[in-house]
Amino acid sequence: MEAQGLIMTILIGAVAGWLAGLILKGKGMGFIVNSIVGIIGAFIGGYLFNLIGFSIGSGLISVIITSTAGAVVLLAIIGFLKKSQ
Question: Environment class of residue 55 by beta-carbon count within 10 Å: exposed (0-12), middle (13-18) or buried (19+)?
Fold first, then answer.
């Protein structure tokens, strides 16, 4: 992956993680955690959307929406697991 692609991945991940944090917790979690959550969320969102046959396109906004949806799922699962302990 070229440097520009890596930077865009991190920035999109940070935005998606921040949005997911706002949706579920009401606040962001910091740039690094937001980026990690958003990047993992991109994989989860892409997998889940593909699984149900849903596609919203391939533009920047579509990628952010998919990543945010996956990040919300990830944070919800983590929250559920924390509550069950």
Answer: exposed
